[in-house]
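Handout, section B. The chain below has 334 residues.
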Amino acid sequence: MRRSSIDPAMVEDDDSGSEHDMGDDFYYQVVPLVGLLPEQELHDIGTLEIHRSRIPTQLFRSIVVDMDIMLMQYGAPYEHKTEEIFNHLVKQFGFVLRNKPETMVNDCIGTHIEYFFKIYGAVTLLYIEMRLKVGNDNERLKIIAQAIAECDRCYLENSTGGYFLPIHCIITDGLHYEFFKFDKHLKPSFVRGCFSGDPEHLRRGLKIDDYSRMETTLPFILQLRCACEAVFDVMLSAYIEGLKANYVRSEERGKKGLTRPTLDGGDKALQSAGRAFAAFREAEVQRKDGDLDSADATADQALLALQESTEAAPISYRSKFIMKDWDDVEVRKA
C-alpha cells in the first residue's frame, strides 16, 4: 500500500448534486503542500536551471534506431508510451538505477503510466507519461498536481526507509518534456526546470516538433538530441543524489550500532560520478563553442568515468548478462 500525506477523503465528491470536478479539488488540495497558491496557477513556482549532458553520438544514434523499431510496431512516438526510447540512457547506470513501471495512483485525469527509477530501493526519479496534447491549461495543472502527490508519496516511503533525497520528475506527452524537482527535507518545495535565459512564458521545459509535418525528419532528430541530453542530465543528478543518500544512511545506521551495508566502493562511486557529471556538461560547453572533436572526446571520457562509478557502487544485485557466453559457432549449429 503506497502512502501519502494527502487524505483521499478530501478529494471525494460531495453530495450537493451539482457538477463537481474532482480534479479541481485535487489540485486545490495538493499545491499548497509545496508552498504554492492554487489561484496563482503555478505562476509562483520557483525555477531550476536545465542543463544538457552531452552523450556520444553513437549512443544517441542507437536511441533513434530504437524509435524507428518502435514506430514499425506501435506507430509514431506520440501515439504510444515513449519511455523505451530512453532505455539506452538507463543502461549507462548499470544495475544501480532500476526502473519499475506502475499505473498512476488516484489518477484524476485518466490513465497515465509512471516509471519509478530507484537506487537502493529509494525512488529518485519519477517519469510520467500523459495523453498527447492535453486539452487546456486546467488539465495540465491537474497533471502537475498529480505529479506533486506522487512525489509526496515517494518521499514518504523513502524517508520511512531512512533515505532523504529530492525527487526529480519528468512529465511528457511524447513531444513536450517538463522537468520538476520535489524536496521536503528542510521545507516542502516543488520547482520547475527551465533553460538559462528562457523568458517566463517559455519556462515549460522542451518542445519537439511533430516530424510528420516536416519535409525531413532531421530537425526532429536534432531537437530529440537536446531532449535526450536534458533527460540524461536529470538522470545523472538523480543518480548522484541516490548515491549520497545511501552513503549517509549507511553512516547513520553505523553510528546507531545497526547493521548496515558495506560502504566499500561508495567513495569511489561518488567521486567517479561527480567527475563524469562535470565532464558530460563540459562536453556540451565544447559543443556549443564549436569544438566538436573535444566534445566527442570529453563525452567518451565521461562515459568511462560513469562506468567506473556504477561498477564501484555497493549494490547486492548484479545479473549475469545473457550475451556474455554467446558462441558464434555453437549458435550457428543450433
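Note. The radius of gyration is 21 Å. Compare this with the example in section A.
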